[in-house]
Amino acid sequence: MRRPTAPLTALALALALTGCGAKVSDDGKHAAKPSGHYPVTVENCGTRTTYDKAPARVVTNDVGITEIMFALGLENRMAGYVMPDNVGNLDAVPWKAAYGTVPRLSNKAITREMALDARADLVFAGWNYGFGEDNGLTPASLKKLGIGSYVLTESCRHGADGSARGVMPPLEALYTDLETLGKIFDVEDRAAALVKRYKKQVADAAAKAPAPAERPSVFLYDDGRDKPLTSGKYAGPHDIITKAGGDHTMKDLKDSWTTVGWETVVARNPEVIVINNYGDTSAAQKKAFLTSYPPLANVSAIKHHRIYVMDYADLVESPRNPAAVSDLARYLRGVRAAG
């Protein structure tokens, strides 16, 4: 249950404003470093921010974002995380110990009240991954409370109205966040080692991919009956599918997660459908719908029973992405071998 928000006194605001020692850079230049690592200036989704010290009470939203912090060994810098229940088995991940030491603040949507109650000095979330004008939680609203923000790079907004998301290839977004957070928290060597390992893992899988003309076409299905929610070129599945040796059917969509029409899916006739195992509708229910939906009856993936299930945390930006590339690559090689 959400606790009521206590009124903010002048003292409370003053304490909040001293939080992580972060400030937006006004001059567009890197701050001088007279001694040690700090101050350090970074750019995140087009905003430059200077940190005088590392944030000490970070609150994260969602599984992939939380595990980015864990992969960098920054659980001791966290005040808590917010995450729904339906994100798979967390006992089987490499960060099980970290999950055991950092408080889970809620399994509901993150709010400003949660950040205040946790005495957060930084909220790490993303647009549509916690941040949004509709819920009143934005970097601007947190700034008024003296709380800093870091926006997941996969979710950076672009376009005239800012409704579309994504500004770079998804795996590059993951590497960018690891490197940028490495600077913010003074763990650059750790970040560089992770990026090097992840790039090798992805390269090893990509090296086994078939020639472009022989790659099976792949459609990502998240959910939706009237219109399917899927992945464009800026969401994790695009790079996961492409590096694994598939031809992403929606690679021309300049957005991250978005909807299309079923007629588009039918016209592009994917040979494989990947189901995102997430949400209130189970993967089995999604599969049952796809295989019984009349307009899809002649789609290659349905006719040949080529439906592959992947967990949500594999498909959103997270340190699980490189392993997801390897796993999907094995499946797609089997598809191509079967003819």
UniProtKB/TrEMBL annotation:
One Pfam family here: Peripla_BP_2
Residue ranges of every copy of the Fe/B12 periplasmic-binding domain listed in the record: 57-339
Signal peptide: 1-22
Coiled-coil segments: none
Top-level taxon of the source organism: Bacteria
Keywords: Signal
Family the entry assigns: Belongs to the bacterial solute-binding protein 8 family.
Protein name: Iron transporter
Protein's organism: Streptomyces inhibens
